[in-house]
Amino acid sequence: MQSSKAGQDESSAAAASNDENIQVRSLTAAETDIEKCYAMRNQVFIQEQNVPIEIEMDSYDETALHILATYQGQPCGAARLVVSEDTKTGKIGRVCVLNSHRRKGIGRKIMEHSIQELRRILGTGNKAQLGAQTHALKFYESMGFGLVPGEEYMAAGGVPHRDMELTL
């Protein structure tokens, strides 16, 4: 029994250590580190998923709040928040983690930070929305998002998506 407990402790310690290596922060398009967000989005969406650059980069990039994740100081993930004060909704989009850094909890940290930022900006009781790639539906459901009525649709150059939302 003791070796089993020791294994659990080691696993917990590894998870905690992993967590300490992940840093997530918000930035605007005016900050120099924005290029790191764009580079990761380019790698994941344009290079890996073949999303055309004219779809991936758009006019929202100038006014959005961007999220940058680092692992051991190296950029590894990004997201973008587009807020509508009129409708009191925030759209989380362009969520990505570099292939070499997946399955380390970075996506979860990006989403937790994004939700926290939307709560700060919009207040509780309002909505966070996203268009989820269908392969990631379970991940977003684990973050509290639910599917909204509607069909699967193709976006981002032909990638299947479903709309989801969360009450902040």
Automatic annotation (TrEMBL):
Source taxon at top rank: Eukaryota
An example molecular function term from Gene Ontology annotations: glucosamine 6-phosphate N-acetyltransferase activity
SUPFAM superfamilies (UniProt xref): Acyl-CoA N-acyltransferases (Nat)
Keywords: Acyltransferase, Transferase
The keyword Transferase belongs to this UniProt entry's keyword annotation: yes
Entry EC no(s): 2.3.1.4
Catalytic activity: D-glucosamine 6-phosphate + acetyl-CoA = N-acetyl-D-glucosamine 6-phosphate + CoA + H(+)
Keyword Transferase: yes
GO biological process: UDP-N-acetylglucosamine biosynthetic process
A Pfam cross-reference name: Acetyltransf_10
PROSITE patterns: GNAT
InterPro entries from the UniProt entry: Acyl_CoA_acyltransferase, GNAT_dom, GNPNAT1-like
Pathway(s) where this gene product acts: Nucleotide-sugar biosynthesis; UDP-N-acetyl-alpha-D-glucosamine biosynthesis; N-acetyl-alpha-D-glucosamine 1-phosphate from alpha-D-glucosamine 6-phosphate (route I): step 1/2
Ranges of residues in domain N-acetyltransferase: 22-168
Family listed: Belongs to the acetyltransferase family. GNA1 subfamily.
Protein name: Glucosamine 6-phosphate N-acetyltransferase
